[in-house]
Amino acid sequence: MHVQRVLRFIGILIFFLGASMAVPLLVSLVYKDGSTGALFYAMLITSGFGLLLFFATRRPSDTYLSHRDGVAIVTLGWLAAGLVGAIPFLLSGSIIHFTDAYFESISGFTTTGASILSDIENLPQGVLMWRSITQWFGGMGIIVLSIAILPFLGVGGMQLYKAEIPSPVVDKLKPRISDTAKTLWRVYISITALEILLLFGGGMPFFEAVCHTFCTMPTGGFSPKNASIAHYNSPYFDGVIILFMLLAGINFSLHYKLIKGDLRIFAKDPECRFFLTLVGIFVVVVTLNIHGTVYDSLGKAFRYAFFQVSSIITTTGFVTADYDKWPSFSQNLLLLCMFLGGMAGSTGGGMKTMRIMLLAKHAYQEIFRIIHPHAVTTVKLGGKAVPSDILSSIWGFFALYLGLFVVSALIMASLGLDLISAFASVAACIFNVGPGLGLVGPVSNYLTVPITGKWVLIFCMLLGRLEIYTVIVLLIPEYWRK
Amino acid sequence: MKIIIVGAGEVGYHIAQKLSEENQDVFLIDKDPEKIKRITDNLDVQAILGSGTSPEMLKTSGVREADMLVAATDSDEVNLFACLLAKILNPVILKVARVRSQEYLREKELFGQDLLAIDQIINPESVMVETIRNLMMVPGASDVIDFVDGRVKLIGITVKPDSPYAGRQLLSFKGMEGKVLVGAIVRGDHVFIPHGEDTIHANDLVYLVVRADELPSEFGFFNLNDREIRRVIIIGAGETGTALAQALDQTKLHVKIIDKDTQKCAALAEKLERVIVINGDGTDKTLLQEENVNDVDFMVAVTGDEESNVLISLLAKGLGAKKNITRINKLSYIPLVSAIGIDTVVSSRLSAIRAILQYIRQGKIISVAPLKGEHAEAIEAEALETSDIVNQPLSKVKFPKGALVGAVVRGEEIIIARGDTVIRPKDRLIIFALQKVVPKLEKLLTVKLDYF
């Protein structure tokens, strides 16, 4: 690992985050919400810290970054982003304890949306804006953003891109990585703009429309309202947000191809087809389950089922109904949705549909082999054979995911959480959903979780967003051996 | 520019690397998943797994919008067919093909407008033979590159520790101004474009620009061994060895060619007039002694096996051969072998890369040659009227750091550049530049910076 290069890059990253604090600063100036001074100092401290790191390190002679450097930059970069992201919360007095502020900030950047705040509406608008911005940056990725902006990365960018992109396979849209990153961000920004327009046009106040959009597109789930989307109780807003949550759960390369004129791409892509079919099935099943038991009208049942399933499977975590009161079958189904997650290459969390499909196909292939021991078979996705090293890496991923999940849930239980809460809190964090069940359910928050538990959950959120390998590799002694 | 490269072997890989470093959009097609993986890990290009001769594959890689197709696989047939397909799919695409078989090359109509319409054929073997012959003309040099049809030569010389020039500042070569110019110095792994204050160290590889007609008189200056060469031994009668032997057959040099394969030797003996064909093992010490290797001026080891070539050259050197030229394929070996006493290295891949890159450059850049060490290039370019570099003394031109004008060619006249040289529109320039400033340089050469 080239320490100087890693620190230098993180310095640039932090400086960018500091500079981006100008947006909440502006908001607080407009609303005169009293957080202007705090945000100004936060911006000063953050950009100053970034510049300090940048100037304290030597300029490397070339732009080479090894695979190890890439992993270190991404993981440490995210940790550092969480740190500076917490500064506005602390300085403005919105959150008093460091652990809580760091939890909120990491939950923002990892687009989890788990909050420790109980009275959100009382926060200054500037701080609310910053909270949404952390999610928006985290969705497409702060590293991918820097690859798009920094011209000098070259091949080094590829190592970073691979370490941050939430997908088992790296899909390059353009021959050059910086162009790929730029394209993805352009698509992301365009869809974001469209959603703001639709929400604002439907009568949502502009500030809230922006905040909600900034938390929909990255499938984050922070809301400036205490009751989340339920606050509005509007079928139109529910509909718009469902649409954009699903869009955010779809691979952004497909959006790019759609914009490029391939109108049937969602139907053609096998992963997308599978994802949308799953959503459809779950919505129908949950509707039938909650119709009659919780809601009298079928329309209402459908509306809440559709919203909640979309929100959980894309790992957004917006809430329109207290599903803690739903029948346990529906709750279990929602837990399953958390685990499944969005498509590879989307902003969603979870296992990702592509991995699920490949695991299922691979498992079937093994069964098939028992019947035809000499058959030559390959696992195919969309007519293309999937290399076996990708398959084995997915199995490894799956095992690690489950292992870490179980261990974390055990720790949570040892801290005194009940069974449902322990499992649900870890699931909600490691799959980047946000609200869980029980103690951390849709209408409560994470404030009451013990401090150790919060740090475990912070670790889980990072693991989930960076897809385990990138984070866990730094904890392996072999990594640090020269 | 959008460029499709077929074949991710060493040639394709290096061309892709160079072009991606210059921010071109590169698509690289190869059948081998291992190679594709290596490319995705190391290069900032779009690697596509598939066959370059599949129309479907070419379409996915966007051949219809591409500006150029470079067919650089090891198979001539694949390269030619890929070009043919590219022509059908996109009639205006530029096509560069690597073709090795002499038989194909003789059929000129094959490549003509009616059939394949290949814009540039690269035959690495013939480029390499050309390089070897060039090296023989300047026996003291370890690298020779021709510019402006050979009228300007770029000579790479390794400075021996006992050379009177080791340790001298460039400024102290007063009398040579306007005759010779040091354009680049390779020191270990590091290349730099020198200033007047820089000093030449022992073991540096120094690149000089000279006029071809002044070559003999400059030799003495740089302490080169200017004794005319007479005796040459070639080891290995493969494509390169044969082509070289045939080329030297018409000269007055005493040439021997050694090969293990009896049949190859017999076939060769029929073709050659004066060259002596010897059947035997080039690594056999007794054989080499028998053939008076100690009197040989040039020992050329060009067998297909690069490890043998290195050993043959070392052996011959130990036995008293004055100079050796060694063929290496793996580019990563090149810096290693110079360290163990190999004088000069040629590589068909390096030759192919040089030749293809020379063709690819856009704008008014006429040709390019990568210098040893790969991080610097010599560029031949035309000075445009609109460019900022014309009509003022060179010392006033704002060249990017790491670029230097070596020579100016104006019609028949060749000027080795000095601070007061003024470039006129339409002049051809020979510029030394570090790889990383090449894009900046391209800009400077083509557009005038306008400040409104």
List keywords for this structure.
heterodimer, A: 482 residues, two-stranded antiparallel sheet, B: 452 residues, alpha/beta, Rossmann fold, Alpha-Beta Plaits, 6-stranded parallel sheet, 14 helices, 22 strands
How would you portray this structure in words?
The complex is a heterodimer of chains A (482) and B (452). Chain A has 482 residues and is mostly helical. In chain A, 65% of the residues lie in helices and 1% in strands. Chain A has helices at residues 3-20, 22-31, 36-56, 67-91, 98-109, 125-140, 142-149, 156-164, 177-201, 206-216, 235-248, 252-259, 265-268, 270-290, 298-313, 328-340, 353-371, 388-414, 419-430, 451-465, 469-472, 477-480, and strands spanning 380-381, 384-385. In chain A, strands 1-2 form a two-stranded antiparallel sheet. Chain A is globular and about 65 Å long. Chain B is α/β, with parallel strands linked by helices and 452 residues long. Chain B has four domains: 2-122, Rossmann fold (3-Layer(aba) Sandwich); 127-221, Regulator of K+ conductance, C-terminal domain (Alpha-Beta Plaits, 2-Layer Sandwich); 231-321, NAD(P)-binding Rossmann-like Domain (Rossmann fold, 3-Layer(aba) Sandwich), CATH 3.40.50.720; 362-446, Alpha-Beta Plaits (2-Layer Sandwich), CATH 3.30.70. Helices cover 30% and strands 25% of the residues of chain B. Chain B has 14 helices and 22 strands. In chain B, helix 1 packs parallel to helix 13 (348-360) and helix 6 packs across helix 13. The longest helix of chain B has 14 residues, at 76-89. In chain B, 45% of the residues are buried. Classes of the chains: A mainly alpha (482), B alpha/beta (452). The interface between A and B is medium-sized, with 14 and 15 residues.
